[in-house]
Design goal:
Layout lengths: L1 H18 L3 H7 L2 H16 L11 H14 L14 E5 L7 E4 L3 E5 H6 L3 H16 L2 H5 L1 H17 L2 H10 L13 H15 L9 H14 L9 H8 L4 H13 L12 H11 L6
Parallel strand pairs: 1-3
Antiparallel strand pairs: 2-3
Helix pairs in contact: 1-8, 6-10, 6-11, 8-9
The structure holds zinc ion.
Length: 286
Amino acid sequence: MKLIAIRKYFLIVTIAFSFQNCGWLVDIAFPLEIDKFLGERFFKSVVQGENNVKVYKNQELQNYVQSITDKILKSKEIRYKDEFPYKVTLLKDDDTINAVCAPGGYIFVYTGLLHFVKNEATLAGILAHEIAHAERRHSTKQLSTSIALYYGLYLTLSYVLGSELAQHAANLAGLSTNLLSLANSRSAEEEADEFGFRYMRSTPYYPGAISEFFKDIQVWRKEQGDVQDTNLPLEKYLSTHPMDEERIAENERRLKEAKIPKPNPKSFFRERYRSKISQYLGEKAE
Ligand SMILES: [Zn+2]
């Protein structure tokens, strides 16, 4: 009996590892419920003050960021808008320039990002990129080995150890990953940029606006003398979103290929953004 269980375990482990390089396998084998389960569980842990983050309760600002998200969600290219909530939660941390979308469409936006970004279209570009991470199930794919191992371990250990101990072991081996610091692979980033660009095309915003953010990052880095300090706000962003010249060039290529005309300054909604941010968020605390 035990031998059979152990053999089964190794079979499951082998299958689990094969998930790692086959994103399509996840799309077939993992129901969307897994994404929703992971996202909801993570959302609850954030609301309860775990993960070293603080939810920023500011309904007006949250509604404003949600309204930008809702404009992106009108895109026909977004497949899971009825399945995933695509709900925005603000996180109070002026020193973190980042946004994250957990599986199942739970979007987290740091106040540091809202201060750093200069216009509505650029924030929309970043949100579209984040939505693409959830749509393409990047975190689920990245965690697929752990997810498969988790269930594999649970099933196997319940044979070997009995269900109570197995539950305990499965919890230990469980998905304790902090999704806020889960780094994306380069190919996931490329895909999120590509799909984010597609979503942006049906909005009132300039679809290439995310480049403004990339350029501001470069200026900021030069000003800082290209120091690599992981405590700096942008390094926190860069640790989850690898960035280089190539990503900027790719965005330019997309704009050219889609024959997007040069932007009209009005399509950035700079003034509206500035007035809303200063009204709802105020100045950044030094
Ligand atoms: Zn990303």
